[in-house]
Amino acid sequence: MTTFQVANIDYIAILPLLIVFGTAVIGVLVEAFVGRERRHTIQATLAVAGLLAAFVAVIVATGHMGLTLGHVDTATDRHLFALSIDGPALFMQGALLLLSVLGVLTMAERLGGTGSDTFTPSGASTPGSQIEAVSARAGLITSEVFPLAMISVGGMMLFPTVNDLIGMFVALEVLSLPLYVLTGLARRRRLLSQEASLKYFLLGAFSSAFFLFGTALLYGYAGSVYFRDLSQAVSAGPISMNGLLVPGAFLVFVGLFFKIGAVPFHAWTPDAYQGAPTPVTGFMAACTKAAAFGAILRLAYTGLDTARWEWTNGLIVVAILTMVVGSVLAVTQTDMKRLLAYSAISHAGFILVGVIAFDQKGISSVLFYTVAYGFSTIAAFAIVGLVRQGGSEATHLSQWAGLGRNHPLVAGTFAFLLLAFAGIPLTSGFVAKYVVFSAAIGTGGATGTGLVIIGIVCSAITVFVYLRIIVLMYFSDAPDDTVAFVTPSAVTTFSIAIGTMVTLALGVLPAALLDLADRSSVFIR
Amino acid sequence: MSTGMGTLVHQGTYAAGLAAQDGEAHAATGFTAYAWLLIALPAFGALFLLVGGRRTNSFGPVLATLLSWGSFVIGAIITISMMGRAAGDRPKSVHLFDWITGGSFDVQAGLLIDQLSICFVLLITFVGSLIHVYSLGYMQDDPDKRRFFAYLNLFVAAMLLLVLADSYLLLYVGWEGVGLASYLLIGFWYHNPVFATAGNKSFFANRVGDFGMTVAIILMFFYFGGVDFRTVQAGVAGLQGAHQGVMTAIALTLLLGATAKSAQLPLQSWLGDAMAGPTPVSALIHAATMVTAGVYLVVRAGPIFEASPTAQLVVVIVGSATLIFGAIIGCAKDDIKKALAASTISQIGYMMLAAGLGPIGYAFAIFHLLTHGFFKAGLFLGAGSVMHGMKDQVDMRRFGGLWVMMKVTWVTFGLAYLSIIGFPLLSGFWSKDKIIEAAFVGEGWRPWVFGLAALIGAGITAFYMSRLFFMTFHGKRRWTDEVHPHESGLTMTVPMVVLAFGSAFLGLILGPTGIITSWLAPFTGGVQELHPVIPESAVIALTLILVAIGIALAWMMYLRDEVPQAAPRGNLLTQAARVDLYQDHVNEALLMRPGIHLTRSLVFADNEGVDGAVGGLAAFVGGTSSRMRKIQNGFVRSYALTFLTGIVAIIGALWVIS
Amino acid sequence: MTSTGEAVAFWILAPIAVIGGLGLIFARKAVYAAVGMAMTMVVVGIFYLILKADFLGIVQVFVYTGAVMMLFLFVIMLIGVDSSDSLVETIMGQRLAALVLAIGLTGLLFFSLGQVVFDVTTVQAGMDKVVAINASTGNVTGVAELIFGQYVWIFEVTSALLITAALAAMVLAHRERIRPKRTQAEWSAKRIRDNDHVAGLPAPGVYARHTAVDTPALLPDGTPSAKSVSRVLVARDQVASLDAFKDVERHLHREIEKGSEK
């Protein structure tokens, strides 16, 4: 007869998660009980307030680091904890919360309408149908996007925090499901949006299946789903079990690679980025990537660290493919959102290079890169969403011609963000690439150096891509005057401004954040 | 050691000098601690003018000019205080802030003020400020004047950051900043597609250079564990011998960066096109200041180059080839700005040659760089003044006899011209002659080859510069009907006069007195005695004879004989030189052609000429890209197939490996 | 150690599970696919029972086979049993490539997993532990202790998934009523105002031996009236053909005539 062991819970440590999930639930209640007219404002305010409160809670939680939500099995001395509130986890949580604030603010842009400008008034109506038009006229809104986004943020925060494979899977689904829905809710070009949503969902399910399969194999190997047990099992484990370990480890990584859009698991990225409402695209690009890299770090550094030799080669192949395919395919894109999607893919490759460093530097450089990239990308997509022609978003590159002349400030900001993606000095992109590459060179040995050289060649390719847009904006004539930048309200302006300023600040004075990332780079397991 | 700027003090970051040095650069005290103002003033100006927008239209240009002069004054004061110290105590470091420090990453942002960098500071701020003044007049009627001045200020700030940085990484930041400012300046009038294309070409060449720089910095980080000058120098000393290949690799990648920035073979082609830019001002700022960055880099990275004789030889070859190459092109150009650009390429070739010779050449490379800064600036300002009076015409075949109408321009231009061809006692004479002498130093075949190249280059220089001078100011008037040449205003002539003085006397002040060699002695391992393979006096005599022949030839062809208003067919060499010795053709044949049909197949046919300029590499990437794009066909089942392929292939590979 | 009985059960049931899985993928009719999946799930439930995980086995059958799969079947029935997507493959080489890769993956996994040698004592120890806990704590309680003990956080967070699912269903499928629903009185008033069938639509056809809503009434000229049957039936093509009644009518007619003759 065993006695029931109650899970030890440090409520302060998990307060950020509780606040975010709590806000989401309150949001659902608001949806049910508050009138339509006030719903948008209340939901947006609630979401932002919840995120900010959670951020404060993250700061408080830094004093409560450690394992929580579980117990130590005294008989076997196993640490059976669901969550690991440690440096990387809290760093990612804080970063995700701040990025989400910007993301939610861009989602809340109304442009004078009753609800969010980029979300359909009625998700259930057939695209182009009369009901859709009537719903729009009747002032229907889809303010459910806010609770959905909050749940997604909760899942993202959980993703790098979990301490076992099952928790990781649940977090993966919690963050993904709302995104599938959000992707399909665009106001304009709804068929494209719904198609994107379905594709994202199907391929997401496909990748989840591999993740689960890998989890099963690893459980078979270690007899436990906890990272600590897994790591210990590998150190102690016999070679005869490697038949479970090798495919298991890689398949679990596949599920995570899918989320960052690594090649060859990237195919959803351009379609989903293009189809999704633009603020959601920005949110996805910034936050999903950050969260997934947090998870990759945890898996690679705490769970499968001892089995490194078995899967590093796979990671290297994926990193090379991701960098090369992302950069090369970006060259021929004609749609701004697709182009940025491929750019996102190539960035994922660069960050993977940092993962391969396998030391604290690797962790802190990855943390830094995801944050730097996140701020730039949210601002960039926010701008993309506001360049309009005839009411709909002007995402075709030819529509951007001559924007520099008509809207110098907007084009200048966008050009600056592109330079950051390109990794030009004095932008965060430069410092990010520098730290990632130097981490890989520092401890990655010859492989690291090789990867870095490929990385540099690829960034040189992407520079041309970004340059072409800058040239297009500044050095060519606008086809006509119908392409215009819609003046957004203060909230979107705020998020664009913050994103841009952070990009600049991290380029000029990255020391503070790097320092923080460095101090936050120790995992607890 | 205490100072008012306590926080800025950083103890010893750099072992001053490149050769044998005993002392370290001490933290700056007194006024030198404010050296960051050098960069901050123009940087502020650029920011203020760009952010301030139209509101600053009225006073912006003047403010920018004042800020630039402010930098010069600070530079001058720092120089004076430096002169007051003993040689060993001259280098000072200013710690700015911890730039990239995440515990294990450690790059400090700091400035290094030593004899070498202060030379550049003075040149950049002085010539740069004169350009500002000159532009006040030249750009008077341009509606976008404010933006232009913002770019000028940005350029000065970035250039100063480049030369003052105390680490290769910070230098790289300045390097990129200069590239950006130059790109903006060249493409300033983006309504004109030719200018915009030129901007892109320069951007492309510089990206190739940046690639070299990046790899070099990474290699340094890898092998030396740091990228600041001191760590690298110590690392070079520590690794010498054992890692010859590494040294060569680092040196050659650095050289790639230098060739791009300084328009040396094989990346020289952009400079000529950049001269098509809107104003002689932007042409000048490149010619007089930016292109010297490569020379600075080679001199600054001296220890690395010295550790690899192979790399040094490459530098010398690049330098001498470029100086001949540029000079030949200069002979055939009818566009006054392009002829001057070719001359710039050739003169930088001289400096590169000197820098590649090692410690015996460093001082003369810098010396020539300084005098060149003055006389080339004088030439460009003169050309601008001519163009200003000739309704922006640039074809020298439509000039002639201008000396009557534009006396000031004629005299100042004439002095600069005499200086560049090495007329005795003028600035150019002192500096160029020393380089030729240095090229004759050595053993075996080298002094003969490089010395003769430098010598012949001097002769050709005399020919094409005389040609330019005669065609513009003398001979029959060949003007088109609508032009009425006139002298330019004071804001333009005063800078020209100032520069003319520099062109005339700077060499005399610095050269024969030994000031420059002793000032830079810490870098050259003491004042170097030159022992050329033929006597010094013979070198001087030979040079002068060749120069005289050059002038005589030019006189016969362009002053005694009538200059046709349409360019004659000319012999093969002339024809080749007119098209820049087929450099674009070579580029095209090697890089572009194979990719052209692929380029055409691109879905997004970029009619901005980017792909064309970018050449075959982009076409190759683009072609691959459009083929790979087909995999992205929009069908989920096909995506899933890709996904599955990846899994099967990688798991299979993992098994094979393990 | 695996007992003989267990081995026999496994080797009989495992192929069934695989066949069910293959049926899910390859069956042309949605119902067959659903039934195939139900079969697999039942077998999996049995596996759990064999492994002494009683609660899990029963729940697997109850929840998955009983509830989830039946719900699936209902949905399939509602949408229409016959509705199926086009199965023509348009991408060249897709099927072949998929087949090759599937075989490749299977082969790799067989190769890889086939090499694995489990430590017999460890496996037996695990099994013994389950049996011991089942005996002392009880299977259900044991599962509960896990769920509410070390896995409580995951269990709780799963609720976020359910909330998302409910919210997503609402967003994607629920159409908000834009105008208030019309009362019968309002409909009536509208009909009279528009002079739209003030007396109501014609009733379906009433025949001597056949009276049903799917039978159209006949107009005075003998043609069927479309308004007399529900338009849903028309759309589904489920309206009874009048030809079927012609014979009956003729037969009746003859009978009447015969009767009158008598």
Notes on the structure:
The complex is a heterotrimer of chains A (525), B (658) and C (262). In chain A, helix 5 (145-158) runs parallel beside helix 11 (278-303) and helix 9 (242-260) packs antiparallel against helix 11. Chain A has a three-stranded antiparallel β-sheet, with no helix packed on it. In chain A, strands 1-2 form a two-stranded antiparallel sheet. Chain A has one domain (15-519). Chain A is built from 19 helices and five strands. Chain A has 525 residues and is mainly alpha-helical. Chain A is 70% helix and 5% strand. By secondary structure, chain B is mainly α. Chain B has helices at 36-52, 60-83, 115-138, 145-164, 168-186, 193-224, 229-239, 244-261, 269-274, 280-290, 292-300, 302-306, 309-332, 336-356, 359-389, 407-420, 427-439, 446-473, 490-510, 515-519, 521-524, 536-560, 572-578, 583-600, 610-614, 616-629, 636-657; strands spanning 26-27, 92-101, 106-113. A three-stranded mixed β-sheet of chain B has the order 1-2-3. In chain B, a hairpin with a 4-residue loop joins strand 2 and strand 3. In chain C, helix 1 runs antiparallel to helix 2 (30-50) and helix 2 packs antiparallel against helix 3 (54-79). Among the domains of chain C are: 138-175; 202-261, no CATH class. The chains are: A mainly alpha (525), B mainly alpha (658), C mainly alpha (262). Chains in contact: A-B, A-C, B-C. At the A-B interface, helix 7, helix 9, helix 10, helix 12 and helix 14 of A face strand 2, helix 5, helix 6, helix 26 and helix 27 of B.
Compact summary:
By secondary structure, chain A is mainly α.
Number of domains of chain A: 1
Strand content of chain A: under 5%
Low-pLDDT segments, ≥5 res of chain B: 1-23, 588-614
Average pLDDT over all residues of chain A: 90
Radius of gyration of chain A: 22 Å
> What spatial order of strands do you see in the largest sheet of chain B?
1-2-3
Helix content of chain A: over 70%
What do the pLDDT scores of chain B average to?
Answer: 75
Number of strands of chain B: 3
Quick one: which chains have the greatest interface? A-B, 77 and 65 residues
Number of helices of chain A: 19
* Strand proportion of chain B: under 5%
The number of helical elements of chain B comes to 27
